[in-house]
Amino acid sequence: MTETGVERIAAYLEQLTDYLCERLRNRGYQIVSSRRPGEKSQIVCVRHNRGLTPMALYAHLKQRNIITAPRGDRLRIAPHLYNTREDIDALVDALP
Asked: Which tens digits make up the pLDDT trace of 5-14?
């Protein structure tokens, strides 16, 4: 991580989470995390618009070896440096 640089990692993760949010927009998920400039983070929290609980979503994804975290009424998705757009596509495609 030191060799890659914190700024470069942050920029990559911002692009990756922006891509995740784009993919989720028309899939029945509300993006709860702020995506405004200066407020974005590498963590994206979502709610299912048709009533699936975060725990149900978490269990569904875990069965497919996709790790997320239920947090209250939200599902927490936290990509990291080693994740790719293909990983994001796999996550979104696996969502009910």
From this structure: 889 999 999 9
